[in-house]
Amino acid sequence: RKRVKTDLIGLGTLCAIAVWVNRSIIYAMRKIILIDDDTLIHQLWRFAAFDAKIELDCFETINEFLKKSKRIPKDSVVYIDSELRGGIRGEEEAWRVKEAGFENIYIATGYDEDDVDAPDFVLGVVGKRPEF
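Structure (tokenized):
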């Protein structure tokens, strides 16, 4: 959840209103993409997406994703596993996703955030548990 604070001013009265925004509402407006070579993680994310009524596509490799990327909305949120099959580092390959026109890119990892050297254009490093 995200907290939004709004101040309303009128005739000498100051009023603060706190509004809680559920992340699921924000995600519902966008497609979610998961690039991870672990099919068990795919299932976990699919169950969570189904429960949250969120559209999710899962891919095992960046190449598989890029082959279909022209048909995927560019405002989709893309989560890339930090450690892909064959020793491929997600944070090192994320530039390929960015070059394909995607900007909402996160690295998903089981490692500590400080152990991942993500490029500046990556919006964040998150855990493997779906955030929706």
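The chain has a mean pLDDT of 86. The beta strands are 2-10, 13-21, 32-35, 56-59, 77-81, 83-84, 88-89, 104-108, 124-126.
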